[in-house]
Amino acid sequence: MQSHYFSYPDTLIIIFAREPVIGQVKTRLIPALGKEGATELYRRLLDHTIEKVISSDLSPVNLSITPESHLKYFEQMSLFDHFKLTIQHGSNLGMRMYNALLAGLSGYSKVVLIGTDCPFLNADDLQQAIIALDDNDMVFSPAEDGGYVLVGAKKVLPGVFNFIDWGTDRVMEQSRLALINHQISWLELSEQCDIDVESDLRKLFLLDEFKELF
């Protein structure tokens, strides 16, 4: 990673991503956009997220990719020198997030993890998450669909990610119960929208860089 000044050098920002392979990303949008259109949208979301996070100069960045993704795709990115590439591991999304947060906390006092589905997350949101961890064990940005688009931690337990129905509208609700049961303090930031299904596409018109896709 390129060496320069970060506002929060004690924090690691992790982006979860996968290689944009046709027919394997944004599959719920294929009926609306076609396989190539859905893949192009994912690629744009991926590039948008990486650029936003890196340009914020808040913290060091890890791009954590799925095991089946090819390293070469990411190594050819124009911003490759600005992030460290790591591999996700775990039997489900919850364990992959837990393992990534735990690994990050071995070298940093705080870790913030996001995906690529919420192009509306900005530097202010990331900064709020980092600051929230001063007084809380964890921080979340809930999603309109019942999940969450950001999770941060300075303390993490596997129980927070166990027995969660990932991909459903019960994720945040179940996570709250797990946090209470494990006596983890947390703060929730403002609710965000992510881009998963056809009805979400209209929200992209608020962002100029996505309008040309439609």
Describe the structure.
- The chain has helices spanning 30-56, 71-75, 93-105, 123-132, 171-181, 208-211; strands spanning 11-17, 61-65, 84-87, 110-114, 138-142, 148-153, 186-188.
- Strands 3-2-1-4-6-5-7 form a 7-stranded mixed β-sheet, with helices on both faces.
- The protein is an alpha/beta fold and 214 residues long.
- The protein has a single domain, classed as Spore Coat Polysaccharide Biosynthesis Protein SpsA, Chain A (Alpha-Beta Complex).
- The longest helix has 27 residues, at 30-56.
- It is globular and about 45 Å long.
Strand content: 15-25%
Using only C-alpha atoms, the radius of gyration works out to: 16 Å
How would a textbook summarize the main sheet?
7 strands, mixed
* Fraction of residues in helix: 25-40%
The count of helical stretches stands at 6
> What do we call the CATH homologous superfamily?
Spore Coat Polysaccharide Biosynthesis Protein SpsA, Chain A
Name a few traits of the molecule:
globular; Spore Coat Polysaccharide Biosynthesis Protein SpsA, Chain A; seven-stranded mixed beta sheet; 214 residues; single chain; alpha/beta
SSE diagram, text form:
Elements: E1 11-17, H1 30-56, E2 61-65, H2 71-75, E3 84-87, H3 93-105, E4 110-114, H4 123-132, E5 138-142, E6 148-153, H5 171-181, E7 186-188, H6 208-211
Offer a concise description of the structure.
With 214 residues, the chain is of the alpha/beta class.
